Amino acid sequence: MSKDPRNQDRPGGGPGEARNIERYGTALAQLGRIASMRWSGDYELTGLKVRLGVVDHFDTMVIITARHIEGAYLVAFHSANMPEEAVAGAINRFLNGSLKWRDDEYATGRARQDGQDEG
């Protein structure tokens, strides 16, 4: 019986472990750098929420909230099968500018107002 290939990226799972630990550590260090100073890009990170999935059934989703330099509140999403991949991927996408930003209706209250109008 062969080993599950997904386990080689998990702690104690195989040769990719050291490389992945370094990658995840680097991503968390980048998050610390972003959070401890005003990011010099167009977006200021204001929040990072992790919604855990059930492994092998649902992905882990990271919800990233930010404020644009012009004042707009924005939200973006990133998901991956494993929590560490989701968090590292979200941080890396924030840094390389590949997140797809949307207006954050919850931050502005529009989502709550729309819900009250229907009731």
- How is the biggest beta sheet arranged? 4 strands, antiparallel
On the 0-100 scale, what is the average pLDDT? 80
Oligomer: single chain
Whole-number tally of structural domains: 1
The span between the termini is 57 Å
Which regions contain 5 or more consecutive residues with pLDDT less than 50? Answer: 1-5
Q: Count of helices?
A: 4
Count of beta strands:
4
CA-based shape: flat
Features:
119 residues; alpha+beta; four-stranded antiparallel sheet; 4 helices; 4 strands; flat; disordered N terminus
Brief characterization of the structure:
By secondary structure, the protein is α+β, with helices and mostly antiparallel strands. The chain has helices spanning 17-36, 83-96, 105-108, 110-118; strands at residues 43-51, 60-68, 73-80, 102-103. The protein has a four-stranded antiparallel β-sheet with strand order 1-2-3-4.
What does this structure look like?
This protein has 119 residues and is an alpha+beta fold. The protein has one domain. It is 39% helix and 24% strand. It contains four helices and four strands; from the N terminus they run αβββαβαα. The chain has helices at 17-36, 83-96, 105-108, 110-118; strands spanning 43-51, 60-68, 73-80, 102-103. The termini are far apart.
Write the layout of secondary structure elements.
Blueprint (H helix, E strand, L loop, with lengths): L16 H20 L6 E9 L8 E9 L4 E8 L2 H14 L5 E2 L1 H4 L1 H9 L1
Antiparallel strand pairs: 1-2, 2-3, 3-4
Helix pairs in contact: 1-2
